[in-house]
Amino acid sequence: MKCYNHDDVDAVGICKHCQKGLCKECIEEVDGSLACKVSCVEEVETLNYIVNRSKNMVKHAGSQWNPAIIGSFVFGVFFFGLGFRSEGMLSMAMYIFGLGFCAISLYYYIIKKRMSKQD
Ligand SMILES: [Zn+2]
Ligand SMILES: [Zn+2]
């Protein structure tokens, strides 16, 4: 793979934000992740910040039924309800949304369970 900015230079890494391949000169390391020096450093910093924060949120949430789990599940059920009332493609889309949110809620639940086991 070649650098996105330099056709003749081999890429050494991929930007975490825009997934472009970059050479040594175009890449910068931000908290252990790679980013485009010119355009994506700030985005990757923000991304890392959000990821770390949500990791901490999951870790520090007291009960196993935290708002993220309940919220996602409620959204899931809500979209299933909409899917039930709509027709055709729209109904399909609503079911997919519903499934997605249920999956997120399940995912959070499993992570929570694993973490409380480790404590
Ligand atoms: Zn980038
Ligand atoms: Zn380059």
Protein topology:
Elements: E1 13-14, E2 21-22, E3 27-30, E4 33-36, H1 41-60, H2 67-85, H3 88-118
Antiparallel strand pairs: 1-2, 3-4
The protein binds zinc ion (2 copies).
Kindly report the spatial arrangement of strands forming the biggest sheet: 1-2
Strand content: 5-15%
The rough form would be described as flat
Main sheet makeup: 2 strands, antiparallel
Q: How many H/I helical runs?
A: 3
Task: Estimate nothing, just give the exact number of structural domains.
Answer: 2
Query: Any idea what the radius of gyration is?
Result: 20 Å
Bound molecules: zinc ion
* Main structural class: mainly alpha
**First and last CA, distance:** 44 Å
- Helix share of residues? 55-70%
As an assembly, this protein is single chain
What is the mean pLDDT? 88
- Element order, helices and strands? EEEEHHH
Instruction: Show unreliable segments.
Output: none
Strand element count: 4
Architecture overview:
There is one protein chain. With 119 residues, the protein is mainly α. The chain has two domains: 13-45, no CATH class; 53-118. Helix content is 59%, strand content 10%. Strand 3 and strand 4 form a beta hairpin. Helix 2 (67-85) packs antiparallel against helix 3 (88-118). The relative contact order is 0.10. The model has no long low-confidence stretch (mean pLDDT 88). One zinc ion (ZN) binds at residues 3, 5-6, 9, 22-23, 25-26. One zinc ion binds at residues 15, 17-18, 20, 35-36, 39-40.
